[in-house]
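One chain is below:
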Amino acid sequence: MFVIANFIYAIAVILNILVWFAITVLIVDSILSFVVPYNFPIRRIFYQMSEPMVRPLRRFIPTMGMFDFSPFVAILILIFIQAFVVNTLFDLSIFLK
């Protein structure tokens, strides 16, 4: 059983890292959108990384003036995934040991 527990724990760790990386990308892209024009290479890189996470939400969340709240909603969804899915996997791996 410990092999399955360690496998689930490894999945939880990797998923946790991916969620925090995605949150960081969304925050940096949001800050850069106010500071740096789009034609800068670093701005385009962060935009291309964050766009697949934000594009589906933009269909449902309208922009209010010049503010786009879809990155905020994406961060909330990622925090939910981290708090529910990742912590459940951690608890499951502890339970199986």
About this structure: The chain has a mean pLDDT of 94. The chain has one domain: 2-61+68-96. Residues 2-61+68-96 form one domain.
